Amino acid sequence: MTLEWIGVVVYLLHGVLNAANSIVPSAQKIAMAATAGSRDLDATALLLTTQDQVKTTIEVAADYGGSLDVILDDA
Amino acid sequence: MPAAGVVMIIAVLLIVLAVVYYLVSTIVALQRITKNLDDAITGVVGIIEKSAPVDDVVTSINTNLDAGVSLLEGLLVKKAGMEDAVGLVDGLYPGAAGDGFRDFPESKETKAPRISEVYTKGTLTLARLGREAPIAAASPNGPALRNPTYGSLAARGLYPEVRQTRPEAMPRSPVIGTDSPVQYEPSESPGVRKRMPVAAGVAGPPEPEATEGGVVKSGLAFLRRLKNDDR
User: Fold this and answer.
1) Contact at 8 Å (CB) between B188 and B196?
2) Which of A8, A27, B6, B43 fits A38 for a cystine, CB–CB 3.0-4.6 Å?
3) Number of domains present in the structure of chain B
4) What is the number of structural domains in chain A?
5) What distance in Å separates the CA atoms of residue A6 and residue B18, rounded to the nearest whole number?
6) Which of B46, B53, B79 is opposite residue A74, by nearest beta carbon?
7) What is the residue range of B40's domain?
8) Chain B: nearest CA to A74, how far in angstroms?
9) Do A27 and B32 touch (CB under 8 A)?
10) Contact status of A28 with chain B (Cβ, < 8 Å)
11) What pLDDT does B132 receive?
């Protein structure tokens, strides 16, 4: 009887080991994806440059618009 | 020790070894999972930290771009009028007239004139901005005013009536050089000729007409004929 229970325990442990081993590649992929995503976001600092550039461009466009508003007659 | 005891001990030993093997393997696998999850957490934290200011920055960019769109739309509608403005946009971006202008909901209902079928983009811009030409106003629903394949001919109509219908009346471009067929005298005033040039081998400039009392003779003859007709 004891040997039978021991066999059941060994079988269950074998299942646990298989499950744990199957999780490892998935966890590795998640870690790689997170690392790659974090690396991709390194470029977000450039958004600050884009922000300044957009602001400058809109200011220039506004200046041009103001000049055109003076130069051209209304429809 | 009896044989059964030895077998029992070996069996128990094998079972314990099997249990130890599975437990140690499971522990190793779980440790690898833990390490990978730690790496994943590090990456996710990096993503969170790096993306934190994105919202504010993108919102600021969108605000500025919105202001630019409002500015340009307002200027275009103010200067070109709603109908021509819609036609201009539709000419540059076919089908965009259906979307209309964001700040002018009524633009969606405006029928876009077929500006792009009448003028090329460059001509269109010059015509609209430089000459205030009523582009496409004549026949928004009729046939195109020009052949799209040879559109440059239609664009002539926008320019002064000098080179369009009578280009033969224009003097030819000068050929310069010491052996040129036409020799030009140097002028003291740029752009002003002392006399019209004459091609080599061609008779010289016409002699001035004879005068009588300061009046050209041919003119006097004309006046005399006119006087006789009055009688």
Assistant:
1) no
2) B43
3) 2
4) 1
5) 10
6) B79
7) 13-52
8) 4
9) yes
10) yes
11) 41
